[in-house]
Amino acid sequence: MSSNDPRLLALQQALPELRLTTEASELEHYGRDWTRRWTPAPLAIALPTRIEEVQAIVRWANEQGVAVVPSGGRTGLSGGAVAAHGELVLSLERMNKVLAFDAVDRILTVQPGIALEAVHNAAREHGLVYPVDFAARGSCSIGGNIATNAGGIRVIRYGNTREWIAGLKVVTGSGELLDLNRGLIKNSSGYDLRQLLIASEGTLGIVVEASLRLADPPPPTNVMLLALPSFEVLMQVFAEFRSRLQLEAFEFFTDRALQHVLAHGAQKPFEELHPYYVVTEFAIGNEAQEAAAMAAFEACMEQGWVSDGVISQSDAQAAQLWRLREGITEALAPYKPYKNDVSVRISAMPAFLAETQTLLGQAYPEFEVVWFGHIGDGNLHINVLKPDGLDNDEFVRQCEQVTKLLAQSLRQHAGSISAEHGIGLVKKGYLDSTRSAAEIAVMRGIKQVLDPNGLMNPGKLFDP
Description:
This protein is α+β, with helices and mostly antiparallel strands. The chain has 4 domains: 6-93, Uridine Diphospho-n-acetylenolpyruvylglucosamine Reductase, domain 2 (2-Layer Sandwich), CATH 3.30.43; 98-213, Uridine Diphospho-n-acetylenolpyruvylglucosamine Reductase, domain 3 (2-Layer Sandwich), CATH 3.30.465.10; 221-329, Alpha-Beta Plaits, CATH 3.30.70.2190; 336-446, Alpha-Beta Plaits. 34% of the residues lie in helices and 20% in strands. The chain contains 15 helices and 16 strands. The chain has helices at residues 6-14, 24-30, 51-64, 116-125, 142-148, 155-158, 193-197, 234-244, 255-263, 287-303, 315-326, 328-332, 349-363, 392-412, 437-450, and strands spanning 19-21, 44-47, 68-71, 88-91, 98-102, 107-110, 165-172, 177-180, 205-213, 221-228, 247-254, 276-283, 308-311, 338-343, 368-374, 379-385. The strands form 3 sheets. It has a 7-stranded antiparallel β-sheet, with helices on both faces. It has a 5-stranded antiparallel β-sheet with strand order 5-6-9-7-8. It has a 4-stranded mixed β-sheet with strand order 1-2-4-3, with helices on both faces. One of its GO terms (biological process) is respiratory electron transport chain. This is D-2-hydroxyglutarate dehydrogenase. Keywords: FAD, Flavoprotein, Metal-binding, Oxidoreductase, Zinc. It comes from Pseudoxanthomonas indica.
């Protein structure tokens, strides 16, 4: 570290083994997430390796009045890991180990900086699975997944991250260490603070250890790609497949999304281009289930809900079909898309989809809008691509005008402005479309208790 800032010198003296950097390239790297909308300007980057170091850093922050931004893989899309106002970034990437495995309880205990893919691999070594999964598995961290209650592509079968958290160790905003739930299945001894910390986006404290429940491997599955002739039949296809099959996933995307993924190197699935697509994965443990899958496909074809389809014949082909869905975010990244990540109850999805399609068609006549989402759990992703030549600030301004209308629609449908990305900086202005004034007041009160000086990721979720 080459800074002469007396605050940082005090921290380095208190923790001589702590890696603390003020290198310009490091400040740039650790001060932003995938939103790329804010100029990073952190005070410094701290990279602890032990819980005690995290506690000492937080206590130092309270003494010095320095705000702290917890940092994991920084794959977030809501600005939740941005440090743009002189905060200390507390990166957990060096706390990335598997700490223990309990075969009886089937619990894997890990540090927060471990990548999701590494958790998958560790579970597999014990003949089990950690079932939360999504495309950023190689770069996102478990701590970040917990901070946003990440969902992904298999929520329809396994639920969100919170269903798989058996216990947490958390350093609060005052530097206290909380050991929450301790792996218990039944625990009716008051408030479940573990669940409170999940999805809190680092505003209440810092996850420093997580105990993850593991599950049996799923039965053999197949993947089917369906081509749909219109938007209106989407929910009929979902209902037909859900009634006949044990669904693992049911994902939707548009022809525009497909074209971007193909341009990014994916293999073309059909000769003709269709307006809408679904990739679904389902159990095929026996002949009856395989027959049910074909019956569902044929029924949809007879109704005119499906125009074409392909079913995987190998693991390699299944991976190719999944790439068409999982490759969308990476393919769109160069366009710096403005993203909406919204959800409604599945029963409200048909009306909401129709209303939203009309709204976006009218509001963005000159912008390319790419849709995809986890239709099976009511989650829709809307990506608006910035045209060449349009100033980025003006692009965001126009998009935010439409987001206000979208938030109004979500309020009417009792939906959420953030299904799985979190609120962060991007969506805090729309929090009241999802939460009542009374709820927000309670949230502020909780933060005051756990973070009395307001130093944990300030300005995220709501303003101080």
